[in-house]
Amino acid sequence: MRTLLIVYHSMTGGTRQLVEAAAAGARTESALRLRLLTAAEAEADDVLAADGYLFATPENLAAVSGQLKDFFDRTYYGVLERINGRPYSVLICAGSDGRNAAQQIVRIAAGWRLKAIAEPLIVCTQAQTPQRIQARKQIAAADLQRCFDLGATFGSGLALGIF
Description:
The chain is of the alpha/beta class. The protein is built from 6 helices and 7 strands; from the N terminus they run βαβαββαβαββαα.
């Protein structure tokens, strides 16, 4: 049985909703083991034990969250050259853009020599004021469906050995 590791950080609940939808999609594949870990919990051994990765973060100041960056900082060299070719994807919960945060993860994944299975999935909440940025998020059903579909595709492809 192959393992999909989802590593995420969520501050206002938006990223968590994306992760839960993707995890629900991945769970439609019975021949897949799914692990969800917060960025603070995940360690290099968790990365080594997985066959594929879904990294999820809010966009903070046009960048990945500090906790997800800390996860990469703590695990990067411990798994370098040991996970080459494994598949990954990215979920970003952004206020308006998300591309810089996504690009940061893509660059880290390139250093790990991971293989993208899809373009980064970016959900924009249009939060542009301090109040809306800090408020609990409610992600639209259509965006959650996109995350579910990504999770289902990733789970099936990983279980079947396509990725």
